[in-house]
Amino acid sequence: MSGSTARFDEFETVDWIHDGAKERRRQTEPQRHTEPRHQLLLRAYNAIESWVVVTLVGVLIGINTAIISIATEWLSDAKLGVCRSSWWLNEKFCCWEHKAGECTSWSTWDHAMGTDTVFLRYMAFVALGTVFATTCAWLVRVYAPLAAGSGLPEIKAILGGFVLRGFMGFSTLVMKSVGLALAVGSGLSVGKEGPAVHMGCCVGNVVSRNFARYRRSAARQREIVSAAAAAGVAVAFGAPVGGVMFSLEDLSSRFPRKTLWRSFFCALIATVSLQAMDPFRTGKLVMFQAAYDRDWHVFELVFFVIIGVFGGAYGGMCIRLNLKVAAFRKKHLAKWAVAEVAVLAAATTAVTYVNSYTREDMGELLSYLLQECKEGSKGWNNMCDASQASKVAWSLAAATVIRAVGTVLAYGCKVPCGIFVPSMAIGASFGRLVGTLAQMLHRAHPSWHMFAQCAPDTPCITPATYAFLGAAAAMCGVTKVTVSVVVIMYELTGALNFLVPTVIVVMIARIVGDMVVEGGISEQLILLNGLPFLDDMEDEVLDVPVAALMCRVDDVHVVREQGMVVDEVRRVVTTDVRGFPVVDDVGRVTGYVGCRALARAVADAGIDQNATIAFDQSVHRAGVLQLSALVDSSPVTVRPQTSAETVIEIFRKLGPRVILVTSEDDGQLEGLVTRKDILRHVRSQH
Fold first, then answer.
1. For the segment 17-52, what is each residue's pLDDT rounded down to a tens digit?
2. Is it the case that residue 222 has pLDDT exceeding 90?
3. By CB neighbour count within 10 A (0-12 exposed, 13-18 middle, 19+ buried), where does 324 fall?
4. pLDDT in tens, 497-553
5. 389-410 vs 301-332: helix axis angle to the nearest 10?
6. How far apart are CA 460 and CA 446, in angstroms?
7. Is pLDDT above 90 for 205?
8. pLDDT computed for residue 539 by the predictor
9. Backbone dihedral angles phi then psi of residue 368, each to the nearest 5 degrees
10. Angle, nearest 10°, between helix axes 118-143 and 337-352?
11. pLDDT for 3
12. Secondary structure element (H or E) that encloses residue 92, with its range
């Protein structure tokens, strides 16, 4: 089996047509047997039930995110020191009532041990970070291997019409939550925003499966999973509208108006729940929210273009290099996943401790980089001190390189990991660097013509806004998402006056990124890991008829409309296919029957193995097991000369599991084609 289709057999295909028909029958059947005065109550319950599910999902996503945020912040600070009065508090809450520099309750590890040794602080940082990451990798490997990674490629495949058993289960949710806090807190260059989508989908799946309406219908469950994905992004960035836009733009293959409305409601409930929990005790939904009250100047567009080009170049190179690392990891490190994480964590923490910008948690670093300088303040780490500008610039350049290398190596290792915030931190560091250099240039040459727009008594250049634009550019470069990034960044800052520069840098980043590599990191990992996903084929040109792709009739298991006995059917249903074409005596297609339904009906009948089975509703003889009710008498069929592009559109728009190929003249079965057959053919051409 080729590498590009390696995981196809792990996924089951959803038949949206059959699923939708069953759901409609379920809705109408109770009403036929219900008294008229109760039908109104039944319809009201059906209408309310979906909103109850969406509300529960939103609340639980918000609470889960708040708990993870609190745990992550504590673990991140634990590498640096301990609160002597209350060990369970992180540095911020330990020193809540103290001014900066006056807190005696918080001690670095060397002071806690009665010494003043930089090397001891360094070793504690490296040792604890390595322990956290190794523990995370071990827990994931033993209890929930599917919790590793970001989960976005698999979520896209699932929302596209495939099922991966256990990927959105309760154990995966628990280990993803615990592991994510450990992984981010360890200091690895990974983020929690991508896995937040996976966790949101897990919550949606776990909650919805407690309601029969969603447990029995994959189409209904897809609505909840789409809404939960939007809520996951919403709480990750504190951006409910951006979350819905991200689910629409990047995740969901089908997004009708009803799903859009429920996604927005779920995202709203999740963000309100997170706000009520207030994990940072600042009133902010995320640590790196910021606000800007200054405007930009036309001459700054030159610097904005540089930031956009960097974002696209970083994104493209990050994708290319990460794919090489992922391929190496699959080939050589599959058996050493925990050891790899331990070595990676030790190396990362050993390097990042040296630079004050990489030593900080990435969320906290973003909060510093995105803050405007206040008049008279030197800012965090002297970022606002004009006399230290050159030193700050060199530190930011080093931080950009260190984080970029760390992200390329860490993303995709066997721990829960995301790439959004690491990319934002890299982009923000570079943006702040460009802003600092531009500010140094203005201070050195204020009389230059390009600075003529600057007012004499107010800051002309605001490096924090450059960091903001850099974060947007880098995030777009690595995900290839545009509109959602603009909306998310606007919701993070409320900077309406910077909407045009944001659009400019995002579009430049997308154009440059596409020059380096087509598709975002999720699309590329779908191809590398062999995940089935049909919507990544929009630009494919298949100049072949469906006859060249189909599984021919000689290799297809069929059931005869009449004349089969129970023993024959029992042997047929033990094969690894999901259904069978029903044919008459001369091979003409008369319908299609599902394997599971057929196996269940034969098992429940409890009749002799030599008894006859009929799939023709006109047959009514004693001793014949009549199973015509199981047959779909109008399956989707095409002719052998039908173009492959047409078949792809049928799969994409209608969503059948299988399309039968019948002859032009008499409707005889010539073969069948599935979504996986199409994907196998396309990927074999690359």
1. 777 666 666 666 655 555 566 667 767 777 788 899
2. no
3. exposed
4. 888 999 999 999 999 999 999 888 988 888 888 888 876 555 555 678 888 888 898
5. 30
6. 10
7. yes
8. 55
9. -75, -45
10. 150
11. 45
12. helix 91-94
Helix segments in 162-256, DSSP class H = 170-186, 193-208, 212-215, 218-237, 240-246
Task: Give the residue among 566, 570, 545 at the shortest CA–CA distance from 671.
Answer: 545
What's the token pair of residue 131? 């322990």
> Is 362:134 a contact under the CB 8 Å cutoff?
no
Any idea which of 96-110, 583-597, 662-676 has the lowest mean pLDDT?
96-110
The three-class DSSP label of residue 108 is strand
Q: Give the end-to-end CA distance of the chain in Å, rounded to a whole number.
A: 14
**CA–CA dist 624, 138 (Å, integer):** 56
Q: Which of 679, 322, 654, 302 is nearest to 516 (CA)?
A: 322
pLDDT of residue 1: 36
Band (2; pLDDT cuts 50, 70, 90): very low
Q: In the chain, what are the helix, strand and coil shares in percent, each to the nearest 5?
A: 65, 10, 30
Calculated CA dihedral for residues 517, 428, 472, 150, nearest 10 degrees: 60
Token pair for 549 = 């792709």
Local confidence band at 90 (pLDDT 50, 70, 90 cut-offs): confident
Question: What is the C-alpha to C-alpha distance for residues 432 and 369, in angstroms, rounded to an integer?
Answer: 7
Adjacent-strand bridge partners of 399:
none
pLDDT value of position 686 = 60
Are 252 and 159 in contact by the 8 Å Cβ rule? The answer is: yes
Contact 253, 159 (CB under 8 A): yes
The Cα angle at residue 557 between residues 551 and 638, in degrees rounded to 5: 45
391-436 per-position pLDDT tens digit: 999 999 999 999 999 999 999 899 999 999 999 999 999 999 999 9
In the DSSP assignment, the letter for residue 374 is P
C-alpha distances out from residue 363 to 107, 238, 288, 289, 402, Å: 22, 13, 6, 10, 16
Helix runs in 354-419, H state only: 356-359, 362-369, 389-410
| The two structure tokens encoding residue 504 | 């400019």
Alpha-carbon distance values, 607 to 380, 566, 600, 610, 627 (Å):
80, 8, 13, 8, 13
CA distances to 307, 343, 376, 494 from 291, rounded to whole Å, are: 20, 39, 19, 6
* Number of CB atoms found within 10 A of residue 356's CB: 14
Task: Name which of 325, 364, 360, 362 is nearest 344 in CA terms.
Answer: 325
Question: In the numeric block, which tokens belong to residue 105?
Answer: 């309750």
Phi, psi of 109 (to 5 degrees): -65, -35
Neighbour count for residue 161 (Cβ, 10 Å): 28
Residue 426 CA, distance from chain mean position: 20
Distance CA 177, CA 652 (A): 33
Q: What angle do CA 288, 305, 291 make, to 5 degrees?
A: 25
What is the per-residue pLDDT across 158-190, written as a single tens digit (0 to 9) for each? Answer: 888 888 888 999 999 999 999 999 999 999 999
Measured CA to CA, the distance from residue 581 to residue 259 in angstroms comes to 33
